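Q: For a teaching session next week I want to show students how multiple molecules come together into a single three-dimensional assembly. I've collected the sequence lines for a complex. Could you give me the predicted structure tokens for the whole thing so I can convert them for display?
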Amino acid sequence: MATATRPADERLRSAGVLRKLLNRPELGAVAGAILVFAFFAVVAGDDGFLTSTGTISYLEVSAQLGIIVIPVAMLMIAGEFDLSVGSMIGAAGILIALPTAEFGWPMWSALLLAFAVALLVGFINGYLVVTTGLPSFIVTLAMLFALRGATIGFTRLITGRTQVSGVQSEGFLAGIFGGEVAGIPVSILWWVLLGALGTWILLRTTFGNWIFGTGGDPVAARNVGVPVRRVKILLFMATSASATLLAAITVLDAGSADVLRGTLREFQAIIATVIGGVLLTGGYGSVIGPMFGALIFGMVSQGIFFTGVNTDWFQVFLGVMLLIAVLVNNYIRKKASEAR
Amino acid sequence: MTDSATTPLIEAQGISKYFGQVIALQDISMRVSAGEVMCLLGDNGAGKSTLIKILSGVHQHDDGRLLMEGEEVKFTSPREALDRGIATVFQDLATIPLMSISRNFFLGREPTKGGGPFKRFDAATADRVTREEMHRIGIDVRDPSQPVGTLSGGERQSVAIARAVYFGAKVLILDEPTSALGVKEAAVVLRYIAQAKERNLGVIFITHNVHHAYPIGDRFTILNRGQSYGTFEKSEVTREEVVTMMAGGEEMDKLTAELEEFERSDRETERRGPNGGSHLADAFREDAEEIQHGEGREKA
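A: Of course. Below is the structure for the complete assembly, covering every listed component.
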């Protein structure tokens, strides 16, 4: 097999449509999303799940997770975790709300500040991971607590409370972060737009190839000239920036910020990413899959609401889904690396 | 050690490398010219890997000079060495199993099309070139988008070598490319080394398998415990001499002497008692011959 040229007719044998589909990382999540949709369409179809209001409500929930899931997935493909995104959402929300509501800053300058701090936090995460060689799990876990603590501490120090309300915004900025386009909340548009961008970067650019290489085998990638450290640091900066985008959307929508906003988001993002077929160890996955993971998250959390079942059961579902997803992923990866 | 008329592609002059108190390499000199296969031989721990890591920019040497086409260089990263035309195929670390063949082939040097923000990875070109290059070395890739993990070990090494040749490497450093392979698979890689030589590349072939090195090598540099035994033209040495030097000549002689000593005492035991260990002596004798004449007489 190693030496001889294969007979020409063997080349023509098609690999089989099903086989090809099985090798797509997003297959599991797409199938899961269809199943979940079908389930709630039957069970809660009459209770408003299928109406446009119902659809928009679960898409909005999906989008609010999906926006951060996209860079989190790309980072996981590059072999790293970011557990600090949830805290970053809270911190960025306060960074936007506090200067505008308390000190009368113009909105654009507060947004600029929030994004600058986010990029710095992401850079610190990435820099610490690549220079210390510590697992990103530990580095970003430390950042999760430090950032949340600093957010609570500073906010209470300055305002005496843990919530900042009275954020006013109108015009262009209010439109791109908090408005609606043809009845669709902008968060959903951001989600789809970023998903398309992420997919394009991952599959169609040089940087995307580097992401796969970095996660697949950092030493081999470095040996062929991939700037592994730069790839990782940039992706950590992207996850923080996406958390800030989500914060801007929620603050401008609600007109207030809470220091605890975004709590547990980091884990939900990881669950959606893993359900979406990204390998926990990196090197394999897609952006589309985790987007469907976020869609499942949104459909179930809203669907349960429509069915009238106690929403406490949602977390049980998340836990079970995560476990099933990992088992399916392991199976698929084994299939993918077997000789065809 | 004859001088070739041309400047060597790469030349090490008295290179030393220390890791703390450990002397990993001491005063190593070697060179390789275009169209030549230089085999770097040595037992485990001889310093082969350290030497090639210096040549490929992973480590930096502490003493001595490294010359690339007559010009002194000191590489600070693998990328720098790559840009100068030194491509290294590391054992086990050559390819990324879950990535497709064509993405592996072009990793770090992706073809692009379009400009500005629309500059993108040219997947069609990548697939086509990969298929062509693999075909040239006699591996028929059905689907360049299949993961490298689905290829056999020899094919994976060949992908890495084909990649280095395609990207215009002048010097190809192969770190034990055949050690994990079966006989037929090793032959695939050896044939490809011969092709690289024909294309006028300088090849540094690291191995501890003389049966792979001897047929293809033009010159042999033998390392032992961080020091060089020197470089030998193929015409100067026999396969057996190479084996002996690799294992550390004197130690091998000592072992032979010891075994002869055993044999003599065995014979005395035999003379004295009826149930002496003649079988044992035979076994030792066979072992000694085996070691002296190379492990694979039947293969050779």
